[in-house]
Amino acid sequence: MPLLGITVHNFDAEVERYTALFGVTFHVFRAGIDYELRYAADPGTDTSPPLSDGLRIAVDTSDRFELVELPGAPEGFRNVHFRVDDIDAATAHFRQLGLVLAQEIWAGTAREVVFDASSLNGIRLCLLQFEGESFAEALAASPRS
Length: 145
What we know:
The chain has 145 residues and is an alpha+beta fold. The chain has a single domain (3-140), classed as Roll (2,3-Dihydroxybiphenyl 1,2-Dioxygenase, domain 1). It is built from three helices and nine strands, in the order βαβββββαβββα. The protein has helices spanning 11-22, 87-96, 135-140, and strands at 3-8, 26-30, 37-39, 56-60, 65-69, 76-83, 101-107, 110-115, 124-129. The protein has a nine-stranded mixed β-sheet with strand order 2-4-5-1-6-9-8-7-3. A hairpin with an 8-residue loop joins β8 and β9 (124-129). 31% of the residues are buried. InterPro entries: Glyas_Bleomycin-R_OHBP_Dase. This is VOC family protein.
């Protein structure tokens, strides 16, 4: 099952709401503070609002939901993440099929490749590669900045 990224306006209330609705447990992180956030030297074009340092992200331990507090962005579906074993091969595959590379990110110990929403019906496709059971655990185990 993919990890769904959702932009929310009332972060704390939505974490509580998703916990009650779906019975999931969230880890809350501050981007670039609770884990190191590094971008590739030559990022592509990303038409979606960027994640700034200190921005709050909640990822549930079963990797179903990523709630993102993104001021100024419309609330709703932001992206879909798929875990892959070989991120380089998967990236090449999607680029060959016409998706536009937006970003390559190292979020703590996880590596993420993001394709621009303009090349996939307004949805950002994100590929994830990390060690361990879940993205939430990979971020939680990351060295602090």
